Amino acid sequence: MTIKLTETDHELKQILALQQLNHFENLLEAKKKQNGFVTVKHDFDLLAKMNSKAKQVIAVDKGQVVAYALVMLKELNIIPVLQPMFEKFDSMLYDDKIVSDYEFYIMGQICVADSHKRQGIFHQLYQKHKEVYSSQFEICLTEVSSSNIPSMKAHEKVGFKSILKYADHNDEWNILLWDWR
What we know:
Elements: E1 2-5, H1 9-22, H2 29-35, H3 44-53, E2 57-61, E3 64-73, H4 83-89, E4 93-94, E5 97-98, E6 104-112, H5 121-133, E7 139-145, H6 149-158, E8 161-167, E9 172-179
Parallel strand pairs: 6-7
Antiparallel strand pairs: 1-2, 2-3, 3-6, 4-5, 7-9, 8-9
């Protein structure tokens, strides 16, 4: 298995297929509680646009994308479900500085195929993020549903800290920050 940056449209399409399998609308409640879920659905055009600005981090096993961790630069703030999070960045403080004043990007979504869970891939994807992007960005931000306990625990193990919990019309969210300074 290889942790790498995306190179082809075929890999982007594989990301979307894995996303579809793990989207909260497509999972039974027991499966969501056990393995977590993803909330946002990307289409190919949006994912390709994201990828053209910053390459996506993927795990590939035998030619198949088995995990991904998406990079969303702040100028791509166009997904409606993420709007409330982006609005919070303009008023939130971290280390006495407004979050939107940091050099940051959004870790747009992370997902590991069931067949490859509990093998350390989640951590490896994030280490690749840090390796590739920490020279350009001070912090990495993401948002996780409070009901997604597996994801919350996994992010904490990597080094993310919850800096704000809030509710919107969709869910209760935790904004998580990984400080690379």
